[in-house]
Design a protein that fits this description.
Elements: H1 2-10, E1 15-18, E2 26-28, E3 34-37, H2 38-45, H3 51-61, E4 69-74, E5 82-88, H4 89-101, H5 107-126, H6 137-169, H7 174-191, H8 203-221, H9 234-242, H10 248-280
Helix pairs in contact: 4-5, 7-9
């Protein structure tokens, strides 16, 4: 088969790239792929079953495709030639996982499977493929600089976003709190008929209106203090103040207080007019 020839060529030259005494070697093919020997993995895990049957069952269990492993015949001193399997790391990790989870697995195999899978994962982390390894040193340097610039840009963007988030979610500054108080005072004065109105000059009534307006603002934001309003909510707070409407009961009291003063003023003006009229006559 063409595939057999191709895989035999693939593993013709294997170079050891990791040889930990506690585990099996990890090899690199002439195409740069990292692999392990299936028979060595079988021995390293301490599997009691016959290798040929075990490896076939494992490959079937993990749905391995032809691209995931290579099989080649090795010479034998007698009898039929044995078949070795060269496994890519990804499929070897899955085999370790399946072997340890098998109902037949004893405690030793379970522990070995975990250890081998961790070993393969750590190797991958240690030897991650460098996408620039086949480029000239000059190109590698250019890409390295570009990568550093990209990382710098990403950090600047992250800092800018953090700063923006801080500004928007930070509590109001004192000057902004004072501005809200100023806007609230102007609104209350207007609602009560002006500074010279009888209602506004009634300290008790004025306090009630201020308290009601403040409660409405805090209620809108679910807060207990102006200082807890976020800077991003400042304009919304000004809008709430601008649209503030007193409860009907307070408005009635204010209108009554202002109308009484108006009637007294009319009576006073009428009396003055009468005096002027008598004086002129």
């Amino acid at each position: 088969m063409d595939y057999v020839n191709e895989t035999n060529n693939l593993v013709e030259n294997l170079t050891v790239v990791e040889n930990n005494e506690e585990f099996i070697p990890i090899y690199e093919t002439d195409k740069g792929e990292k692999v392990v020997n299936g028979r060595e993995l079988h021995q390293g895990l301490g599997v009691q079953r016959d290798f040929s049957h075990w490896i076939k069952d494992c490959l079937n269990s993990v749905d391995a495709a032809e691209k995931d492993f290579s099989s080649l015949k090795t010479e034998s001193t007698g009898g039929r030639p044995s078949i070795d399997y060269i496994l890519k790391l990804e499929i070897a990790k899955e085999i370790c996982l399946v072997a340890g989870a098998s109902p037949r697995a004893n405690e030793f195999l379970k522990q070995k499977s975990k250890a081998y899978r961790k070993y393969l994962i750590q190797f991958e982390e240690k030897y991650k493929v460098n996408p620039y390894q086949n480029m000239s040193k000059e190109l590698q340097a250019i890409f390295a600089i570009d990568k550093k610039q990209q990382i710098t840009d990403e950090r600047i963007t992250a800092v800018a976003e953090d700063l923006k988030d801080f500004k928007e979610n930070a509590p109001l500054f004192n000057i902004e709190c004072e501005e809200l108080q100023k806007a609230l005072r102007a609104k209350v004065i207007s609602e009560m008929g002006g500074k010279k109105s009888a209602a506004y000059n009634d300290k008790s009534l004025r306090t009630k209106v201020f308290s009601d307006a403040q409660r409405q603002i805090k209620r809108e934001f679910g807060l207990t203090s102006y200082k807890a309003i976020k800077r991003s909510q400042f304009n919304k707070a000004l809008e709430i103040i601008e649209n503030y409407k007193m409860p009907f009961v307070l408005r009635e009291i204010i209108e009554s207080a202002n109308s009484q003063i108006t009637m007294e003023n009319l009576k006073l003006m009428k009396a003055k007019n009468e005096l002027v009229k008598d004086y002129v006559v």
